C-alpha cells in the first residue's frame, strides 16, 4: 500500500514538472487532465492505520470466520447418546473455547478460534428428551465428544424427530398390501433418480418381462 501511494506521488511530481515545460496547448491540456486524475486518486486512498489498529483488525479476523459443522458420527449406550465431531488440533485450545449448551431436546456446540476459525453445530428436535444436568462434552485428540444423557434408558433408532419422520415416510412409500405395487414404486423411483444406464437397464428388463408374459412363461399378474 505504501509503495503504491509513494508511486502515485512521484507520478504527480513528474507531471507537474512536465507542465512547467509544456509549450503546446494540446500537451498542456493532456498533462493537466492527468494531474487532476492523480490528485483525485491520492485523495481517495484509505487513511493509513496505526500499528495497534492493524493488530486489532488481524485479531478480529483471526476469530471472525464461522464454519458450520455437518460431518459427525454417533453411537449410544444405555445411558448416553454420543456424538463425535472431528476437529484437527482441538485439544490444544483452552477448555473455555469449546462450549456446549443443552436443552431437553437440543444442543449447540461452539468451538472458538481454532486455526483462525469458529466452528458451530446445532441439533434441534432430538428424538427423545435428554437430561441437561447429566450431559457434557469431552475434548479428545482431534475430536470433540458430546455426551447427551438419556432421560430414559432406551434405544434410539435415530438422532432427531426429522430423521424418524423421513424414515417412516420412506417406509410407507413401499409398504403396500400388494407386493407388485411396492415393486413398481421402487422401480419408478429408481428410474426417476437413475442415470441413462440405469434407465436402459430397467427398460430392457421391463420389455423382456412383457415378452415372457405374452409367451405364457410368467403369470399375467406379475
Automatic annotation (TrEMBL):
Which keywords does the record carry? Answer: Acetylation, Cytoplasm, Nucleus, Phosphoprotein, Ubl conjugation pathway
Q: Mind listing the GO biological process terms from this record?
A: heart development
Which residue ranges does UniProt annotate as crossing the membrane?
none
Q: Which terms in the Gene Ontology molecular function aspect does this entry carry?
A: S100 protein binding; tubulin binding; ubiquitin protein ligase binding
**Where is each SGS domain found?**
145-222
Q: What residues does the CS domain cover?
A: 67-160
Task: List the InterPro entries hit by this protein, alphabetically.
Answer: CacyBP_N, Calcyclin-binding_UBL-bridge, CS_CacyBP, CS_dom, HSP20-like_chaperone, SGS_dom, Siah-Interact_N
Instruction: Report the Pfam families cross-referenced here.
Output: CS (PF04969), SGS (PF05002), Siah-Interact_N (PF09032)
Record-linked SUPFAM superfamilies: Calcyclin-binding protein-like, HSP20-like chaperones
Q: Which Gene3D superfamilies does this one have?
A: 2.60.40.790, UVR domain
Q: Where in the cell is it found?
A: Cytoplasm; Nucleus
Q: Which domain of life is it from?
A: Eukaryota
Q: Which GO terms describe its cellular component?
A: cytoplasm; nucleus
Please give the function described in this protein's UniProt entry.
Answer: May be involved in calcium-dependent ubiquitination and subsequent proteasomal degradation of target proteins. Probably serves as a molecular bridge in ubiquitin E3 complexes. Participates in the ubiquitin-mediated degradation of beta-catenin (CTNNB1).
Which PANTHER family does the record associate with it?
A: CALCYCLIN-BINDING PROTEIN (PTHR13164:SF3), CALICYLIN BINDING PROTEIN (PTHR13164)
Q: What is this protein called?
A: Calcyclin-binding protein
Give the organism the record lists: Eudromia elegans
Amino acid at each position: 500500500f505504501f509503495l503504491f501511494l509513494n508511486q502515485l506521488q512521484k507520478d504527480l511530481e513528474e507531471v507537474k514538472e512536465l507542465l512547467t515545460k509544456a509549450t503546446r496547448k494540446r500537451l498542456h491540456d493532456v498533462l493537466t487532465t492527468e494531474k487532476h486524475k492523480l490528485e483525485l486518486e491520492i485523495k481517495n486512498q484509505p487513511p493509513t492505520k496505526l500499528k495497534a489498529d492493524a493488530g486489532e483488525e488481524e485479531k478480529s479476523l483471526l476469530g471472525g470466520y464461522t464454519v458450520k459443522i455437518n460431518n459427525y458420527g454417533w453411537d449410544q449406550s444405555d445411558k448416553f447418546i454420543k456424538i463425535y465431531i472431528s476437529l484437527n488440533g482441538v485439544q490444544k485450545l483452552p477448555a473455555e473455547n469449546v462450549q456446549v449448551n443443552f436443552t431437553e431436546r437440543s444442543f449447540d456446540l461452539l468451538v472458538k478460534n481454532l486455526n483462525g476459525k469458529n466452528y458451530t453445530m446445532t441439533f434441534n428436535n432430538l428424538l427423545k428428551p435428554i437430561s441437561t444436568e447429566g450431559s457434557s462434552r469431552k475434548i479428545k485428540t482431534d475430536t470433540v465428544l458430546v455426551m447427551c444423557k438419556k432421560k430414559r434408558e432406551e434405544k434410539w433408532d435415530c438422532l432427531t424427530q426429522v430423521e424418524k419422520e423421513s424414515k417412516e415416510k420412506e417406509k410407507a412409500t413401499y409398504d403396500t398390501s400388494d407386493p407388485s405395487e411396492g415393486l413398481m414404486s421402487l422401480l419408478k423411483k429408481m428410474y426417476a433418480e437413475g442415470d441413462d444406464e440405469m434407465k436402459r437397464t430397467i427398460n430392457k428388463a421391463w420389455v423382456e418381462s412383457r415378452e415372457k408374459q405374452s409367451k405364457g412363461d410368467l403369470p399375467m399378474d406379475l
